[in-house]
Specification:
single chain; mainly beta; globular; 136 residues; ten-stranded antiparallel sheet; Jelly Rolls
Length: 136
């Protein structure tokens, strides 16, 4: 197992509408993910984390089914030390130029992760992930 991914991987880049990131992040090598949500230009959006234990990456924008399996996943807020329920997601909102929030996700038994902007009213959204392991 790799100690950690060499650098953050962008999942959502300059998104100004609802929808999933262009492609997911394969998590099979990692125990945890560090996720950075970055909002620019007075962002106002709700983002949810989705994950799948499937070997193949789901078709995120398609409906969930027996052959396209994924569901929302909980996250751990590294600022407030509180859990965020997967079905709730996070709200990025702030009348500032740049808003940054960092979260941890336990990806034990999850093979794929992606993020869905489910509500968007303003601003630009970026989401980066970095895989981490418990071993040193």
């Amino acid at each position: 197992m790799a100690k950690h991914s060499p650098s953050p991987t962008p999942i959502i880049s300059n998104q100004v509408a609802t929808g999933f990131g262009a492609s997911g992040f394969q998590t099979i090598e990692y125990d945890f993910l560090l996720v950075q949500f970055i909002g620019l230009n007075s962002v106002n959006a709700t983002i949810k984390c989705h994950g799948s234990g499937s070997d193949l990456e789901p078709t995120w924008a398609a409906a969930k089914s027996a052959s396209n399996v994924f569901d929302t996943k909980a996250m751990y807020n590294l600022s407030t030390l509180g859990s965020v329920l997967g079905d709730t997601g996070i709200v990025l909102t702030g009348a500032i130029a740049t808003l940054v929030r960092e979260y941890k996700i336990n990806v034990d038994m999850i093979n794929w992760i992606n993020f869905d902007v489910e509500a968007w009213a303003a601003g630009n959204i970026y989401t980066n992930v970095r895989g981490l392991n418990k071993q040193s």
